[in-house]
Amino acid sequence: xxxxxxxxxxxxxxxxxxxxxxxxxxxxxxxxxxxxxxxxxxxxxxxxxxxxxxxxxxxxxxxxxxxxxxxxxxxxxxxxxxxxxxxxxxxxxxxxxxxxxxxxxxxxxxxxxxxxxxxxxxxxxxxxxxxxxxxxxxxxxxxxxxxxxxxxxxxxxxxxxxxxxx
Length: 166
What we know:
Layout: E1 12-17, H1 20-33, E2 42-46, H2 53-63, E3 78-82, E4 87-92, H3 101-105, E5 114-118, E6 132-139, E7 142-149, H4 152-158
């Protein structure tokens, strides 16, 4: 279901990602649309276990210039990456039991970077702070990606952008 930006406009892009290379290409294409310093932007990564949330996050983090390993933050909950262009926080909420735990994670202190959030359904109020929602699902041997603008500024970035290459 497409998201609304609050101004009556809905911007959404849907594409097939047949393999990991297509996912990396899509991450690069989205990164090119973001501002040079995406601090304060939030991208919610949704989908069932194994749908490609961490794969997409890893591709975006590498596209921003990180050359080292990109572990899943399943156990650490937050993996920070301080890069030349911006700081990225890869956040995994799978293990939190209550949205109140965001306070203890220091969520409010992460607005100096781009926040990539896996399992945002564990804290539904994050949708109010989000810019994009990326829903990944299985499609044959590949994945289907649905990128929805949640904020007005995200809708402006998607406006006029045809479905990105995969």
